[in-house]
Amino acid sequence: MTYKTTFFSVHPIDPFGSKVGGIETHVRQLLKYCPAGMRLILIGVDDSGKRKLGELIEVEMFGGRFLFMPIMHCHQGEVNAAAKSLFQSTTLRFFVNFIRYSSRIKALAKEMPSSFDIQRYEFAWLCRLYGFDYVLTTHGDANPDQPMDSLLSRYWFLHKFNEKHAVRSARHVYSVNQQQTDRIRRDYPEVATKTDFMTVSVDDQLFKPTVYPDLQGPLKIAFVGRLDTFKRPGMMFNVIAELAKRTDNQVEFHYVGAAKPQSFAEFAAIAPLTVCHGFKTSAKVAQLWQGWHMGIVTSVFEGMPVYVLEALCAGRPVCSVNLPQLSLVIDNNINGVLLEQNNDSAELVQQLAQQMLATWQRMRNGQIQPEQVNQKVAPYKASNQMRVLFDKHAQLQSRSAGLVAQS
């Protein structure tokens, strides 16, 4: 194929690997939805330790074709765990290795008009250093006083410093929730006109509404993703335990992800009712949703959880503690419940369990239907949003082509 422009996606992900999360899902959708005529090069990592670093390989995956350049070997056990020290940070090591292979990356960028797509503030320094135009997608605010597994809790000042320079230098900024979008516009008025709200996208080619299985029970509740501290796994397990108490154990909890729920004390109470599926590809998760009934969210904060969008797109209602951005996709009368509060008190555990049972009853009565649940996420489907993002990059690449022509 003859390419006219190059799109660089820069993130420490192995397309063959098992790293999970909203950013990783976003990157995989970029790989899938990249338009014809635009060469996509993923600057990522190799989890296997076998691929030659700095070498391009052609990959057909996720329904698309792209080029992959690993610049760092990353042990599979590290990819889904948060670093405990700065020198264990995958982001820092990736940053250093990008510089190591910068001459190769610069040569590729000069072959044709190009632009870079980044998800981490730190990588903006690399784009500035080498003069690359970039679009930044930032995936949600956190509060340094809230529980976090990452190094952000100890290096918050560095995070804010990086944010300031990343948003100011970006050609365009997208934020995955409206609250953060408003906050960035308020904190940095000079970038307001180039900052837009755009959630992570749900792959509507994979996730489709299907008939609910066996509404006579048991109630099958699922959670997909990492069990970070800010997601309050303990509270989630307590809600499942409360549901089991109220239904005479007629409930199942399904966990998809590489984390170990057994490391949380609260999990012991629901271990006999739990199925741990391990890491699964998005295609497999889409199939699994056909056998489940409902999703649950107990997080302190989030961006726009891709897991929630996938559940809703699959026609499954979601019940959550209060996260303002979820009001965009959850309607208490149509596709789940969004509580008015967000804490991990015993009272809220009982309230969430009660609302989940009420939602379950409405599903059984036919008041909640898969197609109606699905329609609430129509604006956030990848088939719509990826086109917007790639169009923005096409504008930057056109600008790049004009500068080359003038020189």
TrEMBL record:
Example GO molecular function: glycosyltransferase activity
Pfam families tied to this protein: Glyco_trans_1_4
Keyword tags: Transferase
Entries under Gene3D superfamilies matching the protein: Glycogen Phosphorylase B
Alphabetized InterPro entries for the sequence: Glycosyltransferase_grp1 (IPR050194)
Protein name (record): Glycosyltransferase involved in cell wall bisynthesis
Organism name: Rheinheimera pacifica
